[in-house]
């Protein structure tokens, strides 16, 4: 895999799609959750799912550890749980997160286009 400065993570309760990219190319990695759970069951919203997700979140954190600028997107709360996990367990990686946004189920191409536009706008804001 080539070294790319930017990364985007689309994450839900089953998997994370990680795209490392630059203007011309992108590399994709898929990280799957180790635990199969039924989210239709009425779970308490007390953060216990975050505890269950730690092995999954560790694998995703390893996949983005070398990125200089990271965008986290996804449906529902998993993206927020992952951002919180990074804050608590990997503050050095969390420092490179430039945004956490809602995105339902984009294709890889749509995700990459959005991430490139986001990175371009964020890069213009840097001194």
Attribute tags:
127 residues; Nucleotidyltransferase, domain 5; globular; alpha/beta; single chain
What does this protein look like?
The protein has 127 residues and is α/β, with parallel strands linked by helices. Helices cover 39% and strands 25% of the residues. A hairpin with a 3-residue loop joins strand 1 (6-11) and strand 2. It contains 5 helices and 5 strands, in the order E-E-E-H-H-E-H-H-E-H. A 5-stranded mixed sheet has the order 3-2-1-4-5, with helices on both faces.
Please give the count of helices: 5
Q: How many domain modules?
A: 1
In the CATH scheme, the class would be Alpha Beta
Taken from the alpha-carbon principal axes, the silhouette is globular
Q: Would you identify the CATH architecture?
A: 2-Layer Sandwich
Main pleated sheet: 5 strands, mixed
Look at the structure and give the mean pLDDT: 87
Strand content: 25-35%
* Low-pLDDT regions: none
**How would you name the CATH homologous superfamily?**
eRF1 domain 2
**H/E element string?**
EEEHHEHHEH
CATH topology: Nucleotidyltransferase, domain 5
Integer-rounded radius of gyration: 14 Å
The share of residues in helices is 25-40%
């Amino acid at each position: 895999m080539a070294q790319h400065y930017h990364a985007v993570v689309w994450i839900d309760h089953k998997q994370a799609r990680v795209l490392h990219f630059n203007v011309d190319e992108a590399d994709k990695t898929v990280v799957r959750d180790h635990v199969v759970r039924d989210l239709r069951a009425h779970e308490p919203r007390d953060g216990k799912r975050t505890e269950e997700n730690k092995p999954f979140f560790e694998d995703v954190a390893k996949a983005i550890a070398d990125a200089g600028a990271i965008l986290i997107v996804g449906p529902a709360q998993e993206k927020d749980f992952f951002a919180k996990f990074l804050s608590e367990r990997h503050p050095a990686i969390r420092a490179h997160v430039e945004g956490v946004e809602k995105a339902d189920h984009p294709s890889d191409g749509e995700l990459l286009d959005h991430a490139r536009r986001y990175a371009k706008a964020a890069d213009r804001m840097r001194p």
